[in-house]
Design a protein that fits this description.
By secondary structure, this protein is of the alpha+beta class. It has a single domain, classed as phage-related protein like fold (Alpha-Beta Complex), CATH 3.90.1690. It has 8 helices and 19 strands. A hairpin with a 5-residue loop joins strand 17 and strand 18.
Length: 361
Amino acid sequence: MTTTSFGTEEDFTEMVEPEEDLMLTREGFDRQSLRREIMPTQTIDRGTRQVEEGDGYYVSAKSDMPTGSTAVGEVMGNVDIERYVGNELEVPRMTHSMGLDAEDLEIDGQADKIGRSRDAVMEMFDIQADLQTLLGITDEEGNLVRRGVFDWLDDNIPADNVINAADFTTDFGLSNDGQPSNIVQQTAYGKLEGIYANDGWDQVFMPHNVRSLWNTIDDNSGVSLQSQWLDMNADAAGVGSSVVNDMFLIPNKTGLRTAPDASGDPLRFDIKGALPTASNGADDDVMYLIPEHDGDFYQSFEQSEPTLIQDPIRKNGGRQEYEYYWRAGHGFGLGTHRIDDGSGGQIAYDAIKIENVSQLF
């Protein structure tokens, strides 16, 4: 008599248990975990629901310091220390599940199938965390819970640091033989206060169509051909040697692979088209220059891996549904009060937004 052997409940649970840091190795995509490219990530323990924002000790602005010449024996100044206790920031919880038939839980020959199903759930968590970071978080009714990174930058970059490139094409002669890179090396660099940026910026954010403009070969490099972007690394004054350390290309979309014959639209999520509207020029014709802020502007908090709810939800016909939950989210101004403007707002010091970039070329 033919028999079929099924594993125990412990075997099933072990097969669907997520591996640690599984989401760091998503397969089938050129880029994964986009949020980790633009902000530092702090791992939180399971069970952590809130994190403190901006808690720490600071020197009081009322500390006594000498304002004129001093002589030996005079008081040089007394430093007062103040303690700030930040608010509690809620780390959002996400839940996803997968359903398996009883036959799928047969140990022999089915482990790979179950593993692929589990990995797809993990990828969905990863994509959701990216979308929350880039575009913000809303509740079930569509109300905004937390802004995305680009919304925060648009709200907090100083107005004088938002540059309309079209206003500088005549001054630089950029429409003829001028250097478009001067908009970064000269105009943008001249707006730095030196609070977070010294010789340049840590990152630039821009979509592919803006990056393609900077790939233009300039007319001023002599016998050696190089792009406008490389011109920033060849500045004789030294500013360009590290004017921008890294580049984050804003993708058009992200999502998961779906079957070719699947009905309806594939599981794709718009990113570039959902970004904030520019004040000047086309909505996606912009670039952001971001200084090294060590998480002062924004950072994310994530559990190391999703948690499997141990007891499966049993369905009719022997079908079992396994549910996972994971806490991950981002916050702004969490590490310091340096970006506070004194009236409850925040300032993204030394951050620059250049709009209407195509007018330089």
